[in-house]
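agent: user wants the structure for Beta-xylanase from Ruminiclostridium hungatei. delegating to structure tool.
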Amino acid sequence: MSHSCDAVYKHRLGTKRLKLVGTDGNPLGNTEVVIKQKKHEFLFGCGEFNSIAYANNELDENGRLKAEDKYKKLFDLFNFVTLPFYWGDFENIKGRPHTQRLKKTAQWLISRGCAVKGHCLCWHSYSAPWLLDMSNSQILSAQLQRIRRESRDFAGLIDIWDLINEVVIMPIYDRYDNGITRICKDVGRIRLVREVFAAAKEANPDAVFLINDFFNTTTDSYDVLIEACLEAGIPIGAIGIQSHMHKGYWGVEKTLKILERFSTFNLPVHFTESTVLSGHHMPQETDDFNDYVPEKWLSTPEGEEQQARETILHYKTLFAHPAVESITWWEFADGQWLGAPSGLLTCENRVKPAYEELHKLIKGKWWTGPEAAISDETGLIEFSGFRGEYELNCHGKKYSFILDKKGGETEIVV
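agent: tool returned. relaying tokens verbatim.
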């Protein structure tokens, strides 16, 4: 029993022998089963910061009803959600972090079948304001303590983190004074990255910690930084690439060139912040995205059709590349970051064409089952499909198994 798919996605498939045996240990030959996929191994994600208010019962009745409709759509498409850990919000008052609030949110998302990522533990923007009252050595100590605390406190709930964000510009960031730019300028990029990774791995050795940054077409600064970090022995778990396309879709050629550059490091690549707009684009001459504040930034019918076409091209390009392990949409509904029409839903929760087309891919073309199969005389079924979690139904009872790179054989006692 094998799954057919386009050749460019063959690396996403797994094969496993399923051996059906009875409770007496004898093989169950010529037995009919139905197998269906329950979850992808690939992380199809989105940023959904508003889930914190919902999970903590902070919405009024109308807000809660609207959110329930939104999350039904979210969970029908995605298996991965990013939550915010910006220090200035998470611990605006020193010593009073919002740990329980974020834990409750993570637990709720996990209960709905989503893995959770934290974003981010070290960043110059949105850093804690009280850091400015400290010396540089005290700031560094507080930053490392913060990383150990969150990595340890959320272990088992959040085991994927955007650990350090936008290091390339961190020591030269000049929009406003902040503690993280101060220490990065003082100790240097490489030492700071080394220190934060060491602290994080100490607290949660099994977690995946990313370095995350935006890609600048005019320089190779991010490439050079990663190379230097790896030469210094820093245990980067995955490379995070932001792909905010507020100025227009990158196109397949540019995306492939980026993948070619970063796949040379032989590390998993996560597209951590992907956006394609369904309204007008930001002017090309805009340097800092935060500087563009239009009076209105609306989704349009023409823009939505274009967003759908470009989003599908983006996902197909990334899913076809073996280095990519995750794509995160930023964010699920319009009106979040920068107020841009970058969601897959409008502010009113109307589903855009991009959502519908993505659903056809993720839960259609890139999904396996339900499929019927019959075991041979020895009780074996040779099964192939997209890697992930599966359910086998035999004689009205359900059994779970994992399809991964390892393959091998799984015995199912019926």
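agent: one observation worth passing along. The two ends are 20 Å apart (CA to CA).
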